[in-house]
Specification:
alpha/beta, 3-stranded mixed beta sheet, 8 helices, binds arginine
Length: 274
């Protein structure tokens, strides 16, 4: 049974502007946010996932976005490991030790990259190919090129290749908004989010590249979760539905409107455990 780790939204709020979605134009409805998070959990369970949670911490308003604080993996011969993030925003950086402790208590090896003035934001910018054969690593808005280089060097010691990708659209400030692996051959991408070189790399590694429109990407339709034959996403269009059907996936739409006010949706709210 696939396991995922989530953080309840007890202290979730929008208090500053870390990305272009965080306009503060409409206040977070906390009751609605809780209901939406509960629905995400039940849909994940109905899709065959086992849910673990980490204790939320007061004043860490973005901690609900559990995809960002560490990168997690497992490699034959090396076991399970995490790479702690260095988050650009101070309030988010304070989330990292809580996640590192959670994983340390469960015997994950902690690989500290000594990032210094470089940044790396976990699975916001670092995505596994589904078969574990490589990692896609984006930089440009949050993670830095230097951060991705240090990450690559550490992964290469374990024999895991890393594909660097430059991001260019501020509305796709994290890779998980513009790349969504559907299976080992197919991925959803939003081409407008990438440099020309990054686009070439993506086409090299995915036999079937399905293109999202700007509207689909900016409404987090590429920030979905693939689980148990479902594609869990906040909205659906006929074109995306067609792509999913062709890949044998069933769309499941859930409301994440409150979390979108903070610039995140389904994928951002969980970390898949190896
Ligand atoms: N407000 C959060 C931030 O800007 C949202 C993070 C969304 N997470 C993600 N994996 N894209 O840091």
């Amino acid at each position: 049974m696939p396991k995922v780790l989530l953080c309840p939204p007890d202290y979730f709020d929008v208090v500053d502007q870390k990305n272009p979605y965080m306009t503060g134009n409409s206040a977070v409805d906390h009751v609605k946010a809780r209901k939406q998070w509960d629905t995400l959990c039940s849909v994940l369970q109905q899709s065959g996932c086992e849910i673990e949670t980490i204790e939320p911490v007061a004043a860490l308003e973005d901690m609900v976005f559990a995809a960002n604080q560490v990168f997690v993996g497992a490699k034959d011969g090396c076991g399970k490991f995490v790479v702690p993030s260095h988050m650009v925003y101070a309030s988010r950086e304070r989330e990292v030790p809580y996640f590192v402790d959670w994983f340390r208590q469960r015997d994950y090896q902690v690989i500290d990259l000594k990032l210094g003035s470089d940044y790396l934001e976990g699975h916001g910018d670092l995505l596994w190919h589904p078969d574990g054969s490589r990692i896609y690593a984006a930089y440009g808005f949050r993670s830095t090129r230097g951060g991705v280089e240090k990450f690559s060097a550490a992964m290469s010691k374990m024999g895991i290749p890393v594909v660097p990708l430059e991001l260019v659209d501020p509305y796709c400030y994290h890779l998980d908004t513009c790349l969504c692996p559907l299976n080992n051959e197919a991925a959803l991408i939003f081409p407008g989010a990438y440099s020309a070189q990054a686009l070439t790399s993506l086409h090299k590694f995915w036999p079937r590249v399905h293109l999202l429109t700007a509207d689909e990407a900016h409404r987090f339709m590429g920030n979905g979760i693939v689980a148990g034959g479902n594609y869990i996403a906040p909205y659906m269009t006929p074109q995306l539905e067609g792509i999913l059907k062709g890949e044998g996936l069933t769309p499941v739409v859930i409301d994440t409107s409150e979390f979108e006010k903070a610039g995140g949706s389904c994928f951002c709210m969980k970390i898949a455990l190896p």
